[in-house]
Amino acid sequence: MISDQVADIARQVGLEYNFHKAIPANSFNAHRLLHLAKNHNLQDKAKESLLEAYFRDGRNIDDIPTLIALGGEIGLVSTEIKNGLESDQYADEVNQDIFEANQQGVTSVPSFVFDKKLTVSGAQNSKTFLEVLEKTFAEWRIENPETNLIVTDGQSCTIEGGCN
Description:
Elements: H1 2-12, H2 28-38, H3 43-56, H4 64-73, H5 78-85, H6 91-103, E1 111-114, E2 118-121, H7 126-143
Helix pairs in contact: 2-3, 4-5
């Protein structure tokens, strides 16, 4: 079964996927929570929390009490989450995200859009991503022959797992 294969691949990189627990849900409200979290510079934490809740824990990411709890765990104020999700707050932003995704040809998840020109759909191997990155960069380089690119080194990890 494909979900077992994906779970095995995830396990190899330290992720835990329990597809048998996953509750199929509309993710619109979860995306609204992400926009709220973005306003508090907590979007990355919110996204990780939602992914863990769905894939690992089998929680309903369309359930408002669940979203309030998840948001509270990352530092959002529960009343702000509740008020936002019980209204239409951030609905326009999510609808704009959907529109932009459709414009890029995104019809499923996961999908990865590179430089708003190339889209990779579905789980792909690292060779595919490298090829797309190289092609996208080569096209970008033609359009931008001279740039003032400033590179700032920071913490990073190698593919082999060594981190500095």
